[in-house]
Amino acid sequence: MNKSDSERIATVLENMKYKLASDINEADLIVVNMCSVRQSAVDRVFGLIPKFQKLKTKNEKLKTILTGCILKEDKRKFEKSFDQVLKFKDLLEYQPKYQNKLTAFIPISNGCNNACSYCVVPYVRGPLVCRDHREILEEVKNVVQKGFSPIRNAISNGAREIWLLGQNVNDYTSPADSSVNFAKLLELVNDIPGNFQIRFTSPNPKNFSDELIEVMAKSKKVAKYINLPVQSGDNEILKRMNRPYTIEQYKNLVKKIREKIPDINLTTDVIVGFPGETKKQFENTVKLFKEIKFNLAYIAKYSPRPGTAAFQIKDNVSLKEKRRREKILREII
């Protein structure tokens, strides 16, 4: 999602007559588009500050802007080091300046109505807002017909990727027509003429519908790929995470997907070391990994995020233990 936002921010800046610098040392304006999902991402931004300060000693005209997903607690700290901390409004109204000639990132919604206890997205992006399906289809058609700007006709040179983005794509409903849910949108994008492949992220297991599985199975342009975040293999931990499904339901969903799409490439997201996660509970995640046999897993060590419900719980799993658990899961994959 941040990549897509950055491509639209680039358009905003070009409209303001800014030009892309060939090197950061030549820039008069540096814009950092930040993510707050994990503390490590926030720390990387803090790590940039000394470099920017050094650049300012060489270029008195240099200004720095911080934007993106920023928690209130962090905003106060960053305001001391950046010239401006701001939010670019109505980014979806701007045509993106695609940075990748192979891939177009197209948001279908912004924000989230879920309340996973570890996640800051609802606090930094706000509640779910869905785009008009007609806007989305027009953007896809534009990319397919004209190619990825600035490289024209790139899409005609071979199969390219369209990524449909949302914090939870399953929750999509077009504000222009309530009958257009995510499954229907996927069908409509699939029907657009052209040589391209469709991927999407992220779905939530809680409402991954049979209709969506059917559409994926019959649509020739939809990639045989799903990232289906499980987050934990233990029901009690899932409950504390406020993830409204059980492992039994998750496994049943995977079974249905594999029955309809036998060659599916299945990946997942998982968090190790959630507050209170015992070794026995972690072993349930190990058991799930061995049973499901994911093609790939994005494994995150739990990171306390201010303002979330989980932040109120003591982070009582040591970093050493989190690393150990991460290593075990990576070895299974």
Automatic annotation (TrEMBL):
One of its GO terms (molecular function) is 4 iron, 4 sulfur cluster binding. Residues 1-104 form the MTTase N-terminal domain. Keywords: 4Fe-4S, Iron, Iron-sulfur, Metal-binding, S-adenosyl-L-methionine, Transferase. Gene3D superfamilies: Methylthiotransferase, N-terminal domain, tm_1862 like domain. Residues 98-333 form the Radical SAM core domain. InterPro entries: Elp3/MiaA/NifB-like_rSAM, Methylthiotransferase, Methylthiotransferase_CS, Methylthiotransferase_N, Methylthiotransferase_N_sf, rSAM, rSAM_horseshoe, rSAM_sf. Coiled coil: none annotated. This is tRNA (N6-isopentenyl adenosine(37)-C2)-methylthiotransferase MiaB. It comes from Candidatus Nealsonbacteria bacterium CG_4_10_14_3_um_filter_36_16.
